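During the second half of the funding period, the structural biology subgroup turned its attention to how the target accommodates small molecules. The most pressing case was pseudouridine-5'-monophosphate, which had performed well in the primary screen but for which no bound structure existed. We therefore specified the complex as follows and requested a full 3D prediction, including the ligand pose.
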Amino acid sequence: MMEHMRVHPEVQEALAHNRAVVALETAVLTHGLPYPANVETVRDMAYAVRSSGSVPAVIGLLHGDVVVGLEPSEWEEILVDAEKCSIRDLAPAIIHHKNGGTTVAATAYIAQKAGIDVFATGGIGGVHRGASHTWDISADLYAMASCPIVIVSSGAKSILDLPKTMEFLESMGIPVIGYQTRDFPGFYVASTGLALPHFVEDVHEVGSMVRTMRDLALPQALLLVQPGPLPVDPDLVENLVRDALEHAAAQGISGKLLTPFLLNYLNSVAGDHLQRANIALLKANAALAGKVAGALHG
Ligand code: PSU
Ligand code: MN
């Protein structure tokens, strides 16, 4: 156990008895959804994990403590005001006693250190459009190369350069596995037209793959992807993304602020429509992650 890490007793108990636990990310909520919709969403995600027979562990930083399994009474405090914490932000945020929403990179790292092997999120970070000039490539991709954990997501948003993101995943040796799909989903969009190299039909197959990766001592995460249940029209999304990117460029937004800026822009101009799709896929991914954890620990 690390000095700066606090694990919820229920999560500790489940891990000690080899029962199914699912980590839930918080940057997607602190920086991807407005308050108070983010509080309702984390509650629904935790409920979805429990309904599929697993214990939820919401991960984030509270006053500089890395918390694995935030209490419902603590959700509000983080979701109303927190910094976005990727891996490089962890130590600075801890020593300055900050609240933090942890990204896919930071959550995968923390969860895996705590002994959790399944994690649910919305979309992963990836290679940004224009990366050949900006070098903006999410730390999520590097973290996935060295954190052996199952990450359940709906692919990546079309704010990114998705073909380059897929290439990068391949270079890093990260298996991208379609859950009952053969196409890489694009978050709001059910299919990006990018073919997946591998797919599975049920969670038992995922369990077998994970056990095989362990047997081979592979260090990578397994990225399991499924389309969201409320897909949005691809042309609509593409137009909004182009708009959002133009606004970001005009305002000189870059670095860690870029992803939240684009997400907020999409949420604010498209209104309910995209937000409903976003929330629906987060719940669906939490439910699937609960089943995957059950297959690994049942
Ligand atoms: N992509 C999404 N939704 C999100 C994020 C990315 O479609 O909410 C969030 C996640 O928390 C992800 C992070 O880990 O942004 C990646 O940020 P960056 O690109 O700055 O690494
Ligand atoms: Mn970035």
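Two results from this model are relevant to the next phase. The chain has a mean pLDDT of 96. The longest helix spans residues 272-297.
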